[in-house]
Amino acid sequence: MDTEKIGAEEWDELQRNLEESIPVYDRINRFATLGQVSRWRRMVRDELPQNGRILEVGCGPGSFAEDVAGRNLVCLDPIPEMLRIAEARVGPKRAARGDSAVEFVEGTAEELPFEAGSFDAVCSLFSFRDWYDKRAGLAEVLRVLKPGGTLVIVDPAKMNRLHGILGWLWMRIWVGAYARLIFRRSDHPWRWLAKTYASFGTTRDYVKMLEEVGFVDVRAKVVFPGMATIWYASSP
Ligand SMILES: C[S@@+](CC[C@H](N)C(=O)[O-])C[C@H]1O[C@@H](n2cnc3c(N)ncnc32)[C@H](O)[C@@H]1O
User: Fold this and answer.
1) Domain that holds residue 52
2) Which of 7, 82, 152, 170 is most buried when burial is the number of CB atoms within 10 A of its CB?
3) Does pTM surpass 0.85?
4) Residues of the chain whose pLDDT is less than 50?
5) How many Å apart are CA 77 and CA 56, to the nearest integer?
């Protein structure tokens, strides 16, 4: 089990499956998190500064971005179709609120296509565990943050190995049954989300990684054991 990296072939397969899950992404996510996902997204939103430029890494179909009101936001994802769907979903909502348009950018966390020190805050929701090189991605996030900038990440870390097995059973049996029902086939793409869940590390693993990469004031809050940990960190 590698808590830091995903091999190139596996990552390509994961991305294909994530793309296939777009039409049902929010539905299964709500089911898998017992409806708690909106509350966790709100917790991340509340940490973002009102002013300045904010980057969401791994925006997916815009599930988080659509409710980020009043902020200057850039959304990045490696899947063009995710960006297309996100733009169609987020654009009109922001226009109706009178918010500035979001910039949608294709790219990965590991090679952020931005200049050093160009963001006041970076967030990543349910994407960090999909990064193919988490340490390299965090180093890139640190590079693009301004001094004193904020990073907020949410993803389902486990507390220990036994807890990881229970979480995997939850994803595989309970959420898997629901996904099979929705996709009407057993080799449904959600299996890949269970896979990345299984290889993702513990809350502490990533506190340590954030500190080793050079972030300061690193803290983590286990919001729902096995389903949501929020990591907070600052650039020095
Ligand atoms: C499960 S979706 C999360 C969507 C959204 N942020 C949310 O709140 O639900 C994960 C997203 O992370 C993206 N992703 C995967 N690997 C990535 C990487 N190396 N760098 C940036 N984003 C990545 C995927 O393309 C996918 O759209």
Assistant:
1) 8-234
2) 82
3) yes
4) none
5) 9
